[in-house]
Write a structure and sequence with these properties.
370 residues, alpha+beta, Beta-Lactamase, Heat Shock Protein 90, 2 domains, four-stranded antiparallel β-sheet, 9 helices
Length: 370
Amino acid sequence: MVNQRIRQPSGRQSKRTTDLAERAKELGCLISVSRVLADRHSPIASVLERVVDEIPSGWRYPELASVRLTWNDQQWTAPGFCVTPWMMVQAIGAGPEPIGSIEVAYTERPLPESSSPFLPEESRLLKAIAERVADVIELNKAEDALGAYRDQLRSLASQLATTEERQRRDIATYLHDRIGQELALVKLRLESVRGCARDDEQNRVIDQVCELAAEVIRKTRTLTFEISPPILHELGLGPAIDWLADTIRSQHGLPVEVIAEPVPELGDDLTALVFRSTNELLINVVRHAGARSAVVRVRASGSWLRIEVQDDGCGFLPGRVVEAGASGAFGLFSIRERLAHIGGRLELVSTPGEGTHATIVAPVARKGTS
């Protein structure tokens, strides 16, 4: 009797140990699957394939278990999977129309035989896995849709920028060829009648009108260059950046040194994009950096164009500025998005109190390919 009492607790203890071991396997399987599903860098197909590989480890007879996952008319199947009488199926996704399923099959009937070879806990485990898979699939679909929407926005922004640049050029050409020329002709005609005036008062009025015409001509030329500098289209990027540095220096008092290597002829759209981006970076330096000087470096290396704008100003934390939408951040965001659309990028290195180093990196498109 004593021996029987001793053996009974031992049997219950053995069952508890076995049950705990099974729960540990199930928990380990769920953790492993969750880690795989947390991978946001791999393609969704690769992630689901790895999920299929992980699932058998949580079952009572992993050596007999095989898995098939179905989603979006695609299947990920473990080696040796086949339909057998010993299967469990869990739908992926809630609602009347699931988006897929996970099937776990034993390739042969496990021993000892029972009414069901699967544990109730395994059903709950498979349901938990299916819920996590559904969440990741929906997240992936949302990210794909967001990516497509972002690409569309970039394309539209690029088209708008290209259209704006061409309109700028048309307006600048009209100001120069029509308005500017007609104003110059008016000034010449006024000067031609200066000596024909009947008295000094008329001469004084003519002189005042001539001075006014000359001032309007100067402002028209300045406006023409600000809208679309002819030097950009006539002489190219290097001379245009030299002119830009001179303009920043004369208008804002910021010394800008330009160190430019020869660059190949670029397409008109790319030339305009990198010029406008450089201008935006320099304007940010003037408005926000509190810098004493700035340097612009231009160079082409292989199939890439690099334009660096470096200042000795107050600096900032790049991530915080863009995320917070601080003053100047929208310009940086716009530059980054427009460069990304053509396969380029904007690199920012800045530390508070130590200035900023911004680099425009763009793929070189030869003239005639834009």
